[in-house]
Amino acid sequence: MAARTIGSLPVANVQALAETCNGFNDKIPERYIRTEVRSEEVVSVHGSTLAIPIIDLNKLLDSQSSEEECVKLVSGCQNWGFFQLTNHGVPDEVIENMMNDVAEFFRQPLEAKKAYSQLPNSLEGYGQSFVVSDIQKLDWCDRFFLHVRPVESRDLSFWPTNPASFRRSVDVYSSEVAKLSCCLLEFMAKGMGAEPASLLGMFEGQPQGMRMNYYPPCWQADQVLGLSPHSDACGLTLLLQKRDVQGLQVKRDGKWFAVEALDGALIVNVGDTLEILSNGKFRSAEHRAVIHQNKERISVATFHQHCQDLIVGPLPEFVKGDKVRYRSTSYHDFLTQYLKAKA
Ligand SMILES: O=C(O)CCC(=O)C(=O)O
Ligand SMILES: [Fe+2]
């Protein structure tokens, strides 16, 4: 059995596979069949208190309502590890350009996309994530990952030239969400009674990665999984998804909760690094993505990482007399462990 720690083993292109496998007589290859999808309980409650909280950035920024909204924000990070962000200030046009250009990229013929294929032992480019063995089950999804920030980390050989506006759309969107994530980290620290700059100082100007996920429709949608259950390794993830097709599910108390993303909202989640920095006060929740029967779904996740020279361990301001719940490790060791856990 072949195995890799970083990067992903090459597997079939799912978009192409879905096109040849779209009728009732077409058998979905065994490696994509996930029996657990049907056997696990999924809670789907429209607009109820059982849904991830909705945080309004305008309210956070307004001195009249800030404190109350900050309590909601912190409780979302503690109980769910997820929330939806409305009035986030990223202009509609920036979001539209981003989504349109990503959709346009995936719409190209396979050969054109393959020009940006991942290289062995790297996650950057077009392909898959976390395929580490020849026998593991596979996700019904293709992915395109880029190192986006800091600007010097970009390898433009992976940045598509078609559509012509792709690079600019990614650059503008990524700058907006980087600012936004810093703003949220300040409120998260403040809401916990820590110095607002405590988290900000660790994330501002630090690496941002972007994963564009393409989930083709599948006539046997209840038998495949778009993205296997996982938690994100980073500090904070901001997720943008196509408005009309939902698919994200978040685990809480052993059950999956379907997220109903609001039109124009961004979905924010705490990653493993932030869980550790907060000494477990914030949760990095397991999540997954399911597939629609006849509609494609596209999502764009931006991962905000903390300074990689720093040790990953609970911040004294978040420990405050509690027991220290996590061992401090170098970022390298932390990431090695994270990837091992996926294998
Ligand atoms: O597509 C989604 O809804 C989830 C994406 C995600 O969790 C990821 O890319 O890490
Ligand atoms: Fe994720």
From TrEMBL:
UniProt key word Nuclease: no
Domain Fe2OG dioxygenase: 206-306
Domain of life: Eukaryota
Molecular function in Gene Ontology: metal ion binding; oxidoreductase activity
Alphabetically ordered keywords of this record: Iron, Metal-binding, Oxidoreductase
Family: Belongs to the iron/ascorbate-dependent oxidoreductase family.
Protein name: Fe2OG dioxygenase domain-containing protein
